[in-house]
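Predict structure. Chain length: 487.
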Amino acid sequence: MDENKMNRGLSSRHISMIAIGGAIGTGLFIATGGVISQAGPGGAILAYALIGIMLYFLMSSVGELATFYPVSGSFSSYSARFIDPSLGFTAGWLYWAIWSLVTSVDTIIASNVLYYWDTFKFFSPLTWSLIFITLLLLLNIFTVRAFGEAEFWLSAIKVITIIVFIIVGILTIFGILGGHTYGLKNFTTGEAPFVGGISGFLSVLLVAGFSVGGTEVVAVTAGESDNPEKSMPSAIKSVFWRILLFYILSIAVISAILPYTDPLLLNKSESVAQSPFTIVFDRVGIAFAASVINAVILTSLLSAANSGIYTTSRMLFSLSNDKQAPKFLSYLHPKTKLPLPAILTTYLIVVAVIIIANFYADTVFTLLGIIGQLVIFIWAAAVCAQIRLRQGIKAQSLDASKVLPYKAPLYPLGPIIVLVTLIFLLVGGSFENIVNLSVGGLTKDFLPIIILATIYLLHKSVKKTKYVRLKEMDLRNFKAFNKVNKK
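Prediction complete.
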């Protein structure tokens, strides 16, 4: 284990807000209406509540690993140290690929969102995309605290908007604002509260499951946290409750004001003007509601892209440090202790993808749709690493309470709940193709998994890596990773 030499400039408030911001994406502002329309208010709330429980246990597993082994490599490092170096290689490069594409696509969409206002049409979307990604680069190359502050305030805008929306919505439901009392009658309109039967609910559960992708980014920040032993557990607890309340209360407010039968909820064009948030603000009489929500969506996209540059650069740095990527990527600037070659490499790759997408947009977006769903393998690898860590502690006759700075609650029930949910998310997305025995559909669904397994097996064959034996697992010197290296 090499001691992490990066500056620990991220405080608890940075880390908590980074995790919250990671899970609150544009889907909450745009896609929530479709979820309610498909499964009804009861189905939508239940789906997000169940995924919230899964998220809590997933983040607890990640938190246990991140406090014991707080390095920027996170998922790659966990897999390599506690399971198999080849799995660490595969997980690291997969996570890098996912976030490289996410960063590129979010930047592209941000430029298109900006086109909502005629004022900004003096540049092409491509030019705006390049301007955005360059500005985000500047936030990431000076100090890690600059990244943390930017992410804190970008995420804060989303959080404040949701809180205001919930308060305004509740006042509207009871007729205090808007001049009309809605009450809770829309919760029992038609087939409500549960609509679409089991199939409708399961479809929404899939949407809810993938909508919280990004929360796990908090693990990457552990390597630069000023006090991971305290900040990680605190972030996990706050993230679970806040995200659960934000999603569920937002859905409850929308469901009370707009019946699930309202065609505006479907928002097939994904227009900001038809966002359920915009519709609710409009009915209250708030002027420029669409512009306000559009601005929030823009900051949400830039926040995700900002996290993307940070995450991909740290993953490249970690892979290089573990000799699984070119050596120059592990260079740290002597003053800022930032991995500048990794950050600049990430920037150049994202710029290249943005330019390619300008000519072949469908290809890039399709690739993201295919690879993006593989984030469940990253989650599964983290949970399996936690299980292996616990098994290693037991095999070496050590006390987990003394070895681990933070113990995930309800172990091993928590990891089991997560793995069962992830299996459902994996199979559920292909359920229709499995039932209909659609060869083409199944090939499209499972080809990325086959490619992933092939990469893992090839690396294992070439590098001759071995599974980490439980009794040989390195469980010493973890306190060295928790030394605070403040500026």
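Summary: The chain has two domains: 12-429, 430-466.
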